[in-house]
Amino acid sequence: QVQLVESGGGLVQAGGSLRLSCAASGVTISTYVMDWFRQAPGKEREFVARIFPNGETVYSDSVKGRFTISRDNAKNTVYLQMNSLKPEDTAVYSCRMSGSRNYWGQGTQVTVFS
Fold first, then answer.
1. What mean pLDDT is predicted for residues 85-100?
2. Which of 21, 64, 77, 104 reaches 20 to 30 Å from 6, CA-CA?
3. Which whole number is the average pLDDT over 31-41?
């Protein structure tokens, strides 16, 4: 059974940093595209970042230069390093494993206050 579990969210002041983790079980993530999405209250879920099996990365314009996605295949975990956080980054952040079927984690709350 595939499971994705996010952690690392919390409350942080604007300008601060957080590192989110997405730990996978029941599957080896090394050959999968892994994404981070976020959803703010009252808003649609939006794409944040993607990492391909070869390590290539893609970011949304809103986080480019501030966030970094990475993967540790040995730990079967994907990370999202978030720096220079802004109040508008407040959202529930979820990871997704893309394949013939997509799998989602339950999400972790990130709240940025000014």
1. 96
2. 64
3. 97
**Over the stretch 56-68, which tens digit does the pLDDT of each residue have?**
999 999 999 999 9
pLDDT above 90: residue 5: yes
What's the sign of the alpha-carbon dihedral 14, 18, 24, 34? Answer: positive
Q: How many CB atoms lie within 10 A of CB 114?
A: 7
Phi, psi dihedrals of residue 82, rounded to the nearest 5° = -120, 115
The separation between the first and the last C-alpha atoms of the chain, rounded to the nearest angstrom, is 40
Distances in Å between the alpha carbon of 101 and those of 26, 96, 108? 14, 10, 22
DSSP per-residue string spanning 58-99 = EE-TTTTTTEEEEEETTTTEEEEEE-S--GGG-EEEEEEEES
CA 63 to chain centre: 12
CB-based burial, 50-85: b 16+ in 10 Å, e otherwise: bbeeeeeeebeeebeeebbbebeeeebbbbbebeeb
Q: What local confidence, expressed as pLDDT, does residue 99 receive? A: 86
